[in-house]
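Hi R.,

As promised on Friday, here is the backbone we talked about, encoded as structure tokens. Could you run it through your design pipeline when you get a chance and send me back a sequence?
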């Protein structure tokens, strides 16, 4: 039986505010203040490439690799595919290693977190579950969230409130050249 969470302590106020309209119940946002959520507008098919660029930029800016996760909403990232080919135990061992970004799919990352999450909204396999997946995806970052994808798709799945939070001044990153 699911336990409703009505208080959010994990995420910064900015991150929690981005996904609060997707929550099954109204929640009290009690996290600290933090950096604005960033949004990179790009076509759905370019979301993974844009997310790669953002993750590399975070590392260049001094984020430790073990603090960053790159998550996808549809097809898995090529690095995740490569690592899973070595077996599930070897793949999940990379979650605990401190030498690289963790690459995962939103559905496999439910219940997990990272200080920084780069989300590639690269489509949805099951539109009926897309809203729930977007909620999970947006809530995995504790301190910094960067979303890469098509605003129209995000609007269709998450609604206008999510779009408004993603595109507030100060949080918008330059569009991806793709």
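Update: got your reply. Pasting your designed sequence below so it's all in one thread:
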């Amino acid at each position: 039986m699911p336990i409703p969470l009505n208080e959010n302590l994990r995420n910064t106020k900015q991150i929690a505010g981005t996904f609060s309209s997707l929550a099954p119940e109204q929640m009290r946002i009690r996290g600290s203040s933090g950096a604005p959520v960033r949004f990179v507008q790009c076509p759905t098919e370019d979301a993974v490439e844009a997310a790669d660029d953002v993750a590399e930029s975070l590392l260049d800016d001094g984020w430790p690799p073990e603090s960053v996760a790159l998550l996808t909403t549809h097809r898995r990232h090529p690095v995740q595919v490569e690592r899973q080919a070595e077996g599930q135990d070897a793949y999940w061992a990379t979650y605990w290693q401190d030498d690289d970004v963790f690459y995962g799919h939103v559905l496999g990352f439910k219940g997990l977190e990272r200080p920084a999450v780069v989300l590639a909204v690269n489509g949805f396999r099951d539109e009926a579950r897309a809203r729930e997946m977007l909620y999970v995806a947006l809530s995995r970052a504790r301190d910094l969230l960067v979303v890469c994808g098509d605003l129209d798709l995000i609007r269709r799945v998450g609604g206008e409130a999510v779009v408004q939070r993603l595109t507030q001044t100060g949080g918008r990153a330059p569009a991806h050249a793709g």
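One thing I noticed while checking it: The longest helix spans residues 47-60.

Thanks again,
M.
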